[in-house]
Every structure is written in structure tokens, then in C-alpha cells.
Predict the 3D structure of the following.
Amino acid sequence: MITLTDVHKRYWTSRGEPHWVLRGITLAFPADRNTGIIGRNGAGKSTMLRLMSGLDMPTRGHVERTGRVSWPLGLTSSTVNRLTGRQNAKFICRIHGFEDEIKDRVDFIHAYSELGDMFDEEVRTYSAGMRGRLNFAIARAFEFDMYIADEGMGAGDAAFKGKAQKALRDTFKRSGLVLVSHNETTLKQFCDYAVWLHEGQAYSFDSVDEALKNYRQSIKA
């Protein structure tokens, strides 16, 4: 489970002014539910994923994680640009305590990502699609109690996206999910619960359709 308690997040603009993205969010994301997060561009969706995974810290408030939680699939900032794909894979294996299984897991990541020789090039030379494939392949090498994913989780060509979506369907039968997406079909396919981010606040719905209805109305306003 992931719990956010009175979470605020502020960034500073280039003019030196505070920009509050999230204002007092209190939510629980249970591991036995698949939750979709929706909202306008700039509403704080990616920020929330980064806070939930531990890639960023709230300005105020507290984020608690119980069980094994993935980094945000689809966000390229979870890899180190100056390291190669292989070096990133090894580094993450070590972080997760799989020193004795590095070769097998790195071989799996190399094959699953379909990066070929680019696996041994620095990640800063990758396209966005290649980064997404590396990110997704690394996550597939581990088992998590909860997966956090951005809608770019299946980045790559159509064949890779199909493989990624099948893997996700199989994985989420036994693990929880928090998914950011603008695609209504994807949200309805994977999620049974939804959170709508709007003007720094979060509103939860037991129905994905109800959350989407509020989201559509906010866009028209």
C-alpha cells in the first residue's frame, strides 16, 4: 500500500516564485486495487508518481510505502543518463539485492528491451522510446507488490507496445497498479478505481467512468 498524508509539493519558477502543484493530498492506494490517475497537463500527475515511488520528496506531508513498490514505468528520469543500459540494469539489480543473480537478470533485460547493441551505449543517446523500453524491461526483471506507471510505459514500436500491454495484464492480476493516462480505453482496461487531480486537490472515485466525467467537465470549463 502507498499512503499520502497531507502532501504538499512546491516547485520554484524561473522568476523565483513558488508554484504549488499539490496542496494537502491525503490518499491511500491499496495493493489490491488498480488505480487510474487523471487530470489536465500540469495537474501534478507525474509529480505524484515521483513522490509515491520515492524519486522525489514532498515539500510538506508524508508518503508511506509498505511492500515492494516499483519506480515509475515510463518516466525516463529513473535511469542515469551517463551510464549505459547495461550499467543501469546492473546498478538497479544491486540496489534490489540481487548481486548473485546479476548476469541472468541483465541478460533478461537485454533481450526483453530489444535494444541490441544500443544496450551498451549511454542512455543519454537513447530516444524516448528506447528509454521507455529499457525502463519497462528492467521493471519486468523484478516482482513488485505495486507497480507505478506513466502512460508512456509501453514506449516503442507497435509490436513492443503489444508485448508490454500483455505483460501488464498478466502482472496486474497478482499486483497492484497506479497508472497515469489520458487514454480512456487504457484506464478502463486496467483500472477499477480512479483519482482526479484538479487545481492541487485530489478527488477519488470508485468508478473510473465517474472520474472521467468530472475530468471532461473540467476541460470544457
Notes: The two ends are 34 Å apart (CA to CA). The longest strand covers residues 18-29. The mean pLDDT is 88. The CA atoms of residues 73 and 149 lie 4 Å apart.
